[in-house]
Design a protein that fits this description.
Elements lengths: L1 E4 L4 H12 L3 H10 L5 E2 L6 H13 L3 E3 L2
Antiparallel strand pairs: 1-2, 1-3
Length: 68
Amino acid sequence: MLLKSFGANKINVIKAVRALTNLGLREAKDLVESSANAPAPVLTAVSKAAAADAKAKLEAEGATVEIK
């Protein structure tokens, strides 16, 4: 699953990424900010259901997400 952009509400997207990945604040912030330059992988090797759930949570916060 790739995070393509964080939208207008970066702080809430960072919080959602932290909840989904168990990353620390600094790592989650770096991941979200890196999506501004190129799509950043958030989750890898997860089921389609887990990816769809994560996508819904991130999109609810304003992010643009692509599942591959």
